Amino acid sequence: MLLKDKTVIVTGGSRGIGRAVAVACAQHGANVVISHHSHADETMAEIKALGRGAVAVKGDVADPHTAQLLVQAAVDHFGGVDVLVSNAGICPFHAFLDMPLETFQRTMEVNLHGAFYVTQAVANRMKDQGRGGSIIAISSISALVGGEFQTHYTPTKAGVHSLMQSTAIALGKYGIRCNSVMPGTILTDINKDDLSDPEKVAYFNKRIPLGRMGQPEDIGGAVVFLASDMAAYVTGASLLVDGGLFVNLQ
């Protein structure tokens, strides 16, 4: 119960990595507020079945107002906020030379601008509460490597990582820790079409030293650690959770 009675906000918490993170936090005793874009009934039911409080806020993280709504929901239902997991993100794969402006802008607005808005809103609340806190951004292995059809996406994930480095400096004086988690290839809705080719799946499994692609639940443990007091002296750091993919250059 590493997060007993803490309140955690998770953006994009209705499916994929966000859902797994929200459930993992609840398993460790946290109450959870999630943002979602469509529906969150299944995630809410799973958290409540664990005996923890759950609140869903429908909204677009690219809208700064959504960040304020999330903080207000945490305050109204649970009295404050202890942890933020900025997870919401999109990756509409597309070639570079004919990338539509709208695709580029939307990816930036959701992945990077949205992370900034919610981090700023939560940090202000944590500062006012006076008891510190933990902010975790879900970056990506894509912050470290390129992708032919991800020229709009990889810069946002590098930006999210950089945001955590800078906010770690800006917020350390308030006892607020800021770190990023960098998932490798995780099987989620965001890449299910890209990984529908069995040959591509076999290629990745061969490249990954642990022999398999990740599941969303693999990210949950890393987030719980960074959110907990076990990581009390960890800030400005990044945790690569990729089964060894990044280091396997041979």
Automatic annotation (TrEMBL):
Please list the GO biological process terms of this entry. Answer: fatty acid biosynthetic process; rhamnose catabolic process
What reaction gets catalysed by this protein? L-rhamnofuranose + NAD(+) = L-rhamnono-1,4-lactone + NADH + H(+); L-rhamnofuranose + NADP(+) = L-rhamnono-1,4-lactone + NADPH + H(+)
Q: Which residues form the Ketoreductase domain?
A: 6-177
Query: EC no.?
Result: 1.1.1.378
One annotated GO molecular function:
oxidoreductase activity, acting on the CH-OH group of donors, NAD or NADP as acceptor
* Pfam families tied to this protein: adh_short_C2 (PF13561)
Q: In which pathway does it act?
A: Carbohydrate degradation; L-rhamnose degradation
Which InterPro entries does this entry report, sorted A to Z?
KR_dom, NAD(P)-bd_dom_sf, SDR_fam
Establish whether keyword Oxidoreductase is in the entry. yes
Q: Which UniProt keywords apply?
A: NADP, Oxidoreductase, Rhamnose metabolism
Domain of life of the source: Bacteria
In terms of PANTHER family, this protein maps to:
(3R)-3-HYDROXYACYL-COA DEHYDROGENASE (PTHR42760:SF83), SHORT-CHAIN DEHYDROGENASES/REDUCTASES FAMILY MEMBER (PTHR42760)
State the family it belongs to.
Answer: Belongs to the short-chain dehydrogenases/reductases (SDR) family.
**NCBIfam families associated with the record:** PRK07231.1
Protein name, entry field? L-rhamnose 1-dehydrogenase (NAD(P)(+))
Species of origin reads Silvimonas terrae
